[in-house]
Amino acid sequence: MLANELIAYLVPSDVTGFYPFAEKKYCFGNQVINLHDHPDSPIRPGDIFIVGIESLDSQSISNDIRQLLWGLSSIPYSKGKVFDAGNISATLTLAQQYQVVESISAIIAESKSHLILLGGPQEFLSKAYAGWKQSQSFIRMAIIDSKIDWDGNNNDFHQDNFVNTLIDEPYEKLLDLSFIGIQGYFTPQHTLQKVLRRKHDYIRLGNLRGNIREAEPTLSDASLVSIDMAAVRASDAPGKAFDNPNGLYAEEICMLSRYAGIGQSSKFIGICGLKTNAPEQTIMLAAQVLWHYIEGVSHRRVENPIKNLPHNKKYVVSTEVQNVEMIFFRSELSGNWWFELPVNSKKKLLRGKLLVRCNASDYSQASNGEIPQRWLRWYKKAQKI
């Protein structure tokens, strides 16, 4: 597969980096390749493609983020190349832009490379997923936002209800959908109940404060990650599409982004929720969020706790339910934890087993005779796979 299949959908971004901190040769922008200058380049697994979404009222947001991202420190990256693939033109209709996101997502998913999507409203995540599921199954998705954009009205589609198109997807396509950083006063109880009935998950902002690693296993397992900057409090990121006094701190959103990057699964990250003429402070934070994601990808280490025995340890915990055991694995190298669940599906990807990242606290609970909530949710879901 060649780059010209991608750039047929895109226009060049033509961004000149802003380098206030160091000489260009020491900056990230110096390692970014303009894809339009290399249309015959092959698309390889590990390559990273940066794509912006232009709109008539926020045409420059994606380029503004690029300009500041280019000026941050370079990131040693040996797993592939980093390409600026250009922008989805504002001259297209919204429906045409949706189709472009789906098409380029399908290309990148099939090639097992990475897509970074800048700007645009958050419903574009639904179109990226539509592209991904053309070649992938059992996809896990995480959405970082201050609320859950679901209203149950399937006759309409926009940034405030795009989750309607995701939440009832069969597990064979969308295995897991988790919401991180939501705030209770923006999220009605019936919405939370809908998420739980589908055996999906949410983590409230209050549960993250002081315990940000609670989200690490979820982000580590997620193939697709979307960040709405509305999840960040206004004092740290003013001038967003929706300013809110409460939210994640700047360093917290950067940590979450890095968790997604360093995890084994993430192939897509989208950043949205910025409006025209957002202050430079907010644009810089968006750039730093993406820098942490890419830096995380550069440190990614693929681990298989089952295959790497005896370097990994296996722990079996009995339960009070007959023939049900909790099986945990711990990597001796990284300290990461997983649990394993049996599933009926014999598809090659699962082979009758489901591996889920977890925390040491899940094993501690289990060994003390308690049923960890994370394990229980996945156990119920595994019965339906």
Helix and strand topology:
Blueprint: H1 4-7, E1 32-34, E2 48-53, H2 61-70, E3 82-88, H3 94-111, E4 114-118, H4 124-132, E5 139-144, E6 174-182, H5 189-197, E7 201-204, H6 205-208, H7 216-221, E8 224-228, H8 250-262, E9 268-272, H9 280-298, E10 312-318, E11 325-331, E12 337-342, E13 353-358, H10 360-367, H11 373-382
Parallel strand pairs: 1-3, 2-3, 2-4, 4-9, 5-6, 5-8, 6-7, 8-9
Antiparallel strand pairs: 10-11, 11-12, 12-13
What does this structure look like?
With 385 residues, the chain is α/β, with parallel strands linked by helices. The protein has eleven helices and 13 strands. The strands form two sheets. The protein has a nine-stranded parallel β-sheet, with helices on both faces. A four-stranded antiparallel β-sheet has the order 10-11-12-13. β8, α8 and β9 form a beta-alpha-beta unit. α2 packs across α9, α3 runs parallel beside α4 and α8 packs parallel to α9. It is globular and about 65 Å long. The two termini are 33 Å apart.
